[in-house]
Design goal:
about 200 residues, alpha+beta, two-stranded antiparallel ribbon, about 45% helix, about 20% strand
Length: about 200
């Protein structure tokens, strides 16, 4: 298994990068968000890789972080979600957002990804809800083996606080999903309570 590649970028497009390691150029398929963040040709870069072997193809997929890689593995473990759909989802959503959408039962969030229809989006939420939901109240959003922290951890703390106030996990996750995670925890809770009051 190729865990990661570090080397000179030889070529870069919107969905692919070629990295030279030890005289070998590795073609790595990447989400658009990763391609945009990688340095240009001639500069050094590191990608965390996932090797996908199918009947007719062996492909390397690359990610900026280990969380993205774990999220990709989790998504492609859902029946009907192939590597292309996994990349499309991670092109429009970060692992935090994926975990929040699954926990909140927000399947519509996944339809923003190219090639993901409503039925497939519902299947993603249904199959991954148990795997993701467990870690929410513990301060991290659990994506398989990787605990994905929001940048400040504020969203997770706010969700835990709302759950302790008697709201369900999915209600709490849904209400904070659209709130700016850089705000103080108290402010997030206040805005979430306001949005839930408006829905009732």
């Amino acid at each position: 298994m190729i865990y990661s590649l570090t080397g000179k970028v030889l070529k870069k497009t919107l969905d692919m990068v070629v990295i030279s390691c030890g005289g070998v150029g590795y073609q790595v398929m990447v989400p658009a968000s990763v391609a945009g963040a990688l340095p240009g040709a001639g500069q050094e870069a590191t990608v965390y890789t996932y090797l996908n072997i199918s009947e007719n193809d062996i492909s390397l997929f690359g990610f900026a972080t280990e969380e993205q890689k774990a999220c990709f593995a989790l998504l492609t473990g859902v029946s009907g979600v192939g590597p292309k759909a996994g990349l499309a989802i991670l092109s429009v959503m970060n692992p935090d957002r994926v975990a929040l959408a699954i926990s909140a039962g927000d399947h519509k969030a996944f339809t923003a990804a190219n090639g993901v229809g409503p039925k497939l989006a519902q299947r993603i939420v249904l199959e991954l809800k148990d795997k993701v939901g467990k870690g929410l109240a513990e301060g991290g959003l659990s994506l398989g083996d990787a605990a994905v922290q929001s940048p400040t951890g504020n969203l997770s703390q706010a969700i835990a606080a709302l759950v302790s106030l008697g709201y369900s996990q999915s209600e709490a996750a849904q209400s904070v999903a659209k709130v700016d995670e850089t705000l103080p925890v108290e402010e997030i809770i206040k805005l979430a309570l306001r949005s839930m009051a408006g829905r009732r």
